[in-house]
Write a structure and sequence with these properties.
Blueprint lengths: L19 E10 L2 E10 L8 E7 L10 H9 L3 E5 L11 E3 L16 E3 L3 E2 L1 H16 L4 E11 L1 H12 L3 E7 L8 H15 L19 E2 L1 H4 L4 H4 L7 E6 L11 H10 L4 E6 L12 H15 L1
Parallel strand pairs: 3-4, 3-8, 7-10, 8-9, 9-11, 11-12
Antiparallel strand pairs: 1-2, 2-4, 5-6
Length: 305
Amino acid sequence: MAGTDDNPIIYPRLEMPDNVSREKITIWSRGIALDGDIYRPIGLSADSAVPGVVLSHGIGGDKLTPERYAARFASSGMIALTFTHASWGDSHGQLIAAEPAEPLQAGAETVTRVREIRNLLDPLEWVDSYRSALDYLEGESNVDTDRIGAWGTSFGGGTALYTAAIDDRVKVLAIQVPAVLNAPELLAQAGRQRAIQIARGEFGPVPQSDDVLPGLKGTPHFARFAQYKVGDKVDEVTVPTLILDAANEEMFDTAESGARAYRILKERGIETYYEVLPDIDHYGIYFGGYERGSSLAHDWFAKHL
């Protein structure tokens, strides 16, 4: 999450470590080009095999939101990948035909008018994008594919946890100020009704500025939120998990999110560490909470990867 259009959050920028390089990359996910960066330790030999970490931003953020974390991980020998979710920042969005068209024969081409969906918050597409980022990282020659970690912040923390629950490539999880709770019942009901309307052609095929969540940027895809049971996915996580919350969290109830996830994981015997960072709110994790939060995440990956 990154504020609103009227009150954007300006994150501290990265001072690149001398031993880290950054390369702009394109990640393809379900036919959509995602904007990404990959951070590598300088001087790796051709036969080096090092841990890799994928990092996800939150609502309204982009690939630069976690850049300082990625560079910190890379400076100690990991390969880190950040990316911007579909339709946000410089990543492309889904293209929707302006009007229905007849199905094409195999190999045929046509010309039609389309519009691009922008700033859409589709939680299941975020999971797809995260897994595509894992695909990209898995193809890096210096990445040890048995040592891949997942990191996420805010809404991206929920995305990282959901991915860790369903993708066994993720061996370690670190999330901060994470949204890991199911949609409230009223929102789930609205989502089910919206899904009916979309399927029956009574609403646009993909929302665009029609639905809102107060205080957040972009358009939530209510129909997809009804299917996104990230709170339930906590029961499926089997990897060592670090969870960091803010003492003055204002976005959601941490007792029903990060603290609940910690309790469930501990009761299941999963190695888990939970800490509430004092004197900070949700966005304070990137400012006053950065040194402590990034150090804990770095050390968690270093220990378990």
